[in-house]
């Protein structure tokens, strides 16, 4: 079985897995990192949204063999560490706006939100509804209105 080395939430890990094993299963089943959720497995629902090298991606669609030792994966578990706090400002905004219902989609929603705000900053764009329309994460509970409120509030503290 091939081995694969990369960074997850600030730590270097080495796992044994087929090259084609999707990273979502490596995270969840081999590494016990279960914040990224399984919804569709085909890069559509975005429940598994995490970051790779600071950008949003969907680990259900990435084979572990595509990662290199320099690649840095961040999941919801590692998000607070990126700002040196117990909670990331976007997570605090989520709590203040009481966004979650069942909660299943919410780790992916928060990771997508942080990546989108960072992307907007790089591109000099406003955090407005046109920008938020680009977030495609599905929420079966329909929490979209509060998600948007929370992203705007969280962005102000990022
Ligand atoms: S489980 Fe990854 S996008 Fe749906
Ligand atoms: S809170 Fe239930 S799916 Fe989004």
From TrEMBL:
Keywords: 2Fe-2S, Iron, Iron-sulfur, Metal-binding, Oxidoreductase
PROSITE patterns found in the cross-reference section: 2FE2S_FER_2
Gene3D superfamilies (UniProt xref): 3.10.20.30, [2Fe-2S]-binding domain
PANTHER family (alphabetical): BLR6218 PROTEIN, OXIDOREDUCTASE WITH IRON-SULFUR SUBUNIT
One of the Pfam families matching this protein, by short name: Fer2_2
Lineage, top ranks: Bacteria, Bacillati, Actinomycetota, Actinomycetes, Pseudonocardiales
Name of the molecule in the record: Isoquinoline 1-oxidoreductase alpha subunit
GO molecular function, one term: 2 iron, 2 sulfur cluster binding
Keyword Iron: yes
Start and end residues of each 2Fe-2S ferredoxin-type domain: 2-79
């Amino acid at each position: 079985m091939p081995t694969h080395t990369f960074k997850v939430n600030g730590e270097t890990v080495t796992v044994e897995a087929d090259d084609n094993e999707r990273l979502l299963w490596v995270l969840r089943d081999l590494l016990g990192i279960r914040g990224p959720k399984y919804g569709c497995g085909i890069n559509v629902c975005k429940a598994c949204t995490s970051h790779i090298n600071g950008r949003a991606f969907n680990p259900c669609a990435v084979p572990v063999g595509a990662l290199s030792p320099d690649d840095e994966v961040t999941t919801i578990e590692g998000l607070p560490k990126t700002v040196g706090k117990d909670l990331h400002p976007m997570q605090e905004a989520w709590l203040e706006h009481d966004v979650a219902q069942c909660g299943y989609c919410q780790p992916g929603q928060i990771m997508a939100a942080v990546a989108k705000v960072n992307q907007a900053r790089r591109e000099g764009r406003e955090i407005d509804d046109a920008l938020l329309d680009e977030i495609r994460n599905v929420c079966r509970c329909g929490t979209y209105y509060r998600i948007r409120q929370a992203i705007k509030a969280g962005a102000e503290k990022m």
